[in-house]
Amino acid sequence: MKMIIDDLDQATSMDGSAGSAPMTRALSILLIVGQIVMAVGFVLMLLMALIMAVPSEFRDSLLAEAKTAPEPSILLGRCLAGAVLAAGWFFVLKLLRKVVKAVIHGDPFLPENVARLRNIWVVIAATEVFRMFAYYIIGSNGEMDGSRLDIRVGTWFFIFIIAAISEAFRHGAALRAEQELTI
Fold this sequence. Notes:
mainly alpha, single chain
C-alpha cells in the first residue's frame, strides 16, 4: 500500500508543485486501479476454480441455479485460464507504471524503459496466444470441441504498436547516449 501512495505522490508533483503533470497523474491512478482490479480478478478466479475443483453441495447449488451451466471441469479450466490472463495483465500494468514513473521524472528514454516496453508487448502476445489456445481447447459454448480459433485482430494490432513504440524508445535511448558522449 505504501508503494501505491508513494507513486501517487510522485504523480502529483514532478518538481514539488501539485498539478504539474495532471495527465500523468490520472494515468498513474488508472494504472493503480487496473492493478487492483486484476489482483481481485485473479483471486476470484482462483477461488472459483477451487470451488469447481472440489465436489460439494455449494458447487452443485451454484450450478443448479444456472440455466445452461457447463460441466464443472470446463468452468475449472475457464477460471484457471482467467487467472493466468489476470496475472499477465497485472504484470503488464506493473511494467507500465514503471514507464510512467520514468516519464514523471522527466527521463523516458532509459534503457530500462526499452526493456520494459519489450517485455510488455511480449507478455501481451503470450497472454493472447494462451487465450487463443484456451478458447480453442475449451470452446465458447462449453463443449471441448476445438472447432474455432479466436484471433482478435485489434489485440495483435495493439501488440505491434507497442513493439514499434519500444523500438522508437530504443532509438531515442541510443540518441540520448550519443548526445551525452558529445562534448
